[in-house]
Amino acid sequence: MTTVKQGKALNIKDSRILIAGAASLVGSHTADLLLKEGAREVLLLDNFSFGSMDAIAHLQNEPRIKIVRADLMRLPDLLAATEGVDGVIHLAAYMTLGFSQTPWQAVDVNIRGAQNMLEACRVNRVKKIIFASSNAVYGYGSGIKGALSEEIPFHSVGAPPAAILYGASKIMGEQLCRHYYQSAGQDYVVLRYSTVYGERQHYRAANSLYIMETYDLVRKGQAPVLPGDGKDTKHFVHVSDVARANVAALQSTATDVAVNVSGPAPITTGELVQLVLEYCKSDLKPEVRPDPPGKVRLTSGGAFHIPHDKAGEVIGWKPVVQMREGVMRLLAWREQQDS
Ligand SMILES: NC(=O)c1ccc[n+]([C@@H]2O[C@H](COP(=O)([O-])OP(=O)(O)OC[C@H]3O[C@@H](n4cnc5c(N)ncnc54)[C@H](O)[C@@H]3O)[C@@H](O)[C@H]2O)c1
Known about the structure:
The chain is of the alpha/beta class.
């Protein structure tokens, strides 16, 4: 049984919640859920550098929504935005592909941006911050096998630099949260999401991109590509389950803790391709073809899974969307975009 430190819990109905990096996949679904749970106000902060209004267009006329165009790199923006706010969900960040393309901005936003937000929360006495971390804090590469529970150390041997930089930036963000807890009593919960997928999927996350690329190929009548023997594991989590975890973490009394947020079970790339073929009613046969040099793809080269039992104990959360259902929902949404 995990011993959990006790801090402030938010009653969503009385609260003003700010989502930083809201104009995207996780942010838009979290905003939908906060509104459904009766939040007093939900502030959607974004600089729209790679998120888009499309992801939050359905919310813009909702009276309890306020869209805040602001940049994490500007502390005055954040000081103004967090005034009178009860809780912050800090999502804005670059992921592995971003680190491979624009490492300079990625380092700034993921580290200084997180620090700016923590500082703004401290000044404005924000009750709780939820920090979006990632299973990237366990590293990638050939040594990643078995259960990736919250205690395992960072493994970087054999992984591309962008993936290591991304993981290391999330470790920095988590430790900045701990520092603010210890020095200023700032309550926080770190949620280490596994690969997020779902409706409003973007093309910026190396692993969910694989579902989208496979779908795009099959729809063009081309054979899906398996970069290995099809036994490589991925562990996804549906975005609606991630939104539930964000809200559960705000509502819980837990503080100064990090937990995994992963889907019900891992899946192999071979099984994933079969789900896409099934959705498309296609009998194309997957082609085994190694990735071209320089392609950023996160492979484990073996079997791993990400347990989420600690999230159950700490914030009372567990995933409910099975992979088959989630992939069908994502592809139905993707198909609608073309019609
Ligand atoms: N998507 C995944 O598979 C996944 C997996 C694990 C963890 N995560 C983490 O979850 C979080 C959210 O993921 P997502 O896929 O919704 O993210 P995303 O990359 O789609 O969205 C990030 C948002 O942050 C905004 N942003 C970037 N720089 C900014 C700045 N300087 N100021 C203000 N806004 C800025 C972008 O415009 C974008 O809307 C991220 O922290 C990510 O690292 C995501």
